[in-house]
Structures are given as C-alpha cells and as structure tokens.
Amino acid sequence: MTEDNKSAYIDLGLKEMEDSVEEKLCGKWRVACGLCTYNFKDVFTWHLLKTIVMGQVLSVLICGTAVSCQYLVDAGVETPMLQSFLNYSLLLLVFTTNLSTRKDERNLLQILKTKWWKYLLMALADVEANYAVVKAYQFTTLTSIQLLDCFVIPVLMLLSWVFLKTRYRAGHFVAVMVCLFGVGAMIGADILAGRDQGSTSHVALGDGLVLLSAVLYAVSNVCQEYTVKNLSIIEFLGLMGLFGTLISGIQLAVLETHAVAAIKWDLYISMLFAIYALCMFALYSLMPVVVKMTSATAVNLSLLTSDLFSLFCGLFLFHYTFSALYVIAFVVIAMGFITFNAIPTYSA
Q1: pLDDT number for residue 71
Q2: What's the whole-model pTM score?
Q3: How far apart are CA 4 and CA 2, in angstroms?
Q4: DSSP state for residue 137 in the 8-state scheme
Q5: Which DSSP state fits 347?
Q6: Helix ranges (DSSP H) in the chain
Q7: Contact, 236 vs 288, CB < 8 A?
Q8: Residue 39: what pLDDT?
Q9: What is the pLDDT, as a whole number, of residue 13?
Q10: How many whole angstroms separate alpha carbon 192 and alpha carbon 310?
Q11: Cβ-based neighbour number of residue 319 at 10 Å
Q12: Cβ neighbours of residue 7 under 8 Å, at least 6 residues apart?
C-alpha cells in the first residue's frame, strides 16, 4: 500500500469516526428535546387533533363564564361563591347521585370510608382557588392577574414531576416558553388598547391572592390527573360535587348572605346565572376527559387561549379595541400547545 493510499485510508477512517460521534451527539440531543425523527402523520394524529379541539372547547366554555360574569357585574351582582355553589350542586346532582347508586366496591359509601379526607382537601383547594382569583380583581389589575395566573404551569410541572413521576424533555420547556410568549403578546395588546382594568388599592394583596390561586389550582389539577388516570372520572366528579357543594355552601352562608338577598331577580339575571352554571358544569365535566387523554399541564396550556376568546367576544359585546397582536398571540399559543402535545413525556 502506498503512502498516499495509507493517508487516504486514515483520513477516511477519521472522517467516519467524526461522523459517528456527531451522529451520536445529535441523536442524544434529539432524544433530550423529544425531536426524534417523526413522519408528518406520526405527529399530527387524530389523537392530537382531538386534543386540540377539546382543549379549545374548554377555552370557549371559560369564555362563556367570563362573559356571563361580566354581564352580572354590570348588573351590580357580585356573588362568586353563589356561582360556584350552583356549579358544584349540578355536579352533586349528576355524578354524586350516580356514585351513590352503584352496587360494587366503588360506590359512594365505600369511597368515603377510606378516602373522604383526600377528596375533602382536593375540593377545598379547588373552591378556594376559584374564590381567591375572583377576589384578586378587587385589589390588583387585569394585567397582573393574567401574568401571575401563568404561575400555575411551572407549579403544575413541578408537582407532576414529584408526585406523578412525569419527566419532561427540553422540547416541552421550549413549548411552554412559546405559550408564555403568546400570553405576553396578548397582555401587550391589552396595555396598548388601554384595557388595564381592575383596582390598584392593594396590589401586593391582590398579586398574592393570584399566586395562591395558581398554587391551589395546580394542587387540584394534579389530584385530578392522578384520580382520572388511576381510578375513574365519575369518582372524581362525584366527590368534587359532594365536598365542593358542602364547602362552597358554608362559605356562601358566611360571606354572601347579604349580597344574595340584595339581588333583584328577573329573567335576565336568572338567565345569566343559568349560562354561567351550565358553562362551568360542562367545563368541569369535560376537563377530566381531556386530562385523561393528555395531562393537566397540557390542558392548562390550552386554556391560555380562553382570555383571547373572551377578548374576541368583547370586540362585539363590549366594544373592545381590536389589535393584530391578539391574532398573533392566539397563533403563538396554539403553536406552543401543539408542540407540547406532539412530544411525548415519560415516567421515571
């Protein structure tokens, strides 16, 4: 073998080794990011499409609650605990009744004998999360609430990591950052349009209530994910209805007796309460289904578009000022949500 041939042979071997090392490094990076080589139809499956559609249905339902709340506030009615009580009562009538009629070991009495205190704490977290975020509007601005409410997502990811043993890839964190960037665009559009509504009487208290609400929502959502994936959706909704009705009923009697007595009931007010209660009931009934298909974190990312649906409704109902940033925000959040769901998580 000539010297030239030996040199060429060595160069070829070194190049193959470099290519092999580079391919291994790129492969590890792709696996870490969750960006393995997928075909188009492997990523954009019917399951992902159903997840996207059902996530946006949840956002529309939240929009329905927000719009009906706004009309109630405009009519001088501010009774958040009464509104929550109506929702939990519907859950009680439908799902708790279903549980109580079961004849097997998963009936209501058997569950209460062994795990009543767990469901009580879960319902307490859910009820107080709803109440805290509504009270926050009395002390801080809409911008602060929209920003700090996103705190639920990192808390959810942390709790899922610790208690559900869910492991995320780098691509999931990138997708979350993309969604939060979309929220930033939405808030920027609000500020430019002069929609920084709310109070500034006790900003620190209001911001603290929003953060408390985010933590409580995260706790409730993680409990929900564990229950619907390991036990049953009916059990979760039945016990949430039972203890949610009990807790919200007590708070209603303590905090809102005079406010409820002051309501001037007519067909218009009754219809607004009915719309709110039905939207919340549909939201609570459908959300466990979507959580079971995906995860609590993925569902909360999809719910980031609910404010945008409310804004789009506000363009026609409350004469808000339109901004192209709203459309950009919606597209960016949707891209982040799709990316998050396209990359599979894994368990420790």
Answers
A1: 85
A2: 0.81
A3: 5
A4: T
A5: E
A6: 3-33, 40-43, 46-74, 80-91, 97-100, 108-136, 142-149, 152-163, 170-192, 203-230, 233-255, 257-261, 267-293, 296-302, 306-317, 324-342
A7: yes
A8: 55
A9: 52
A10: 17
A11: 7
A12: none
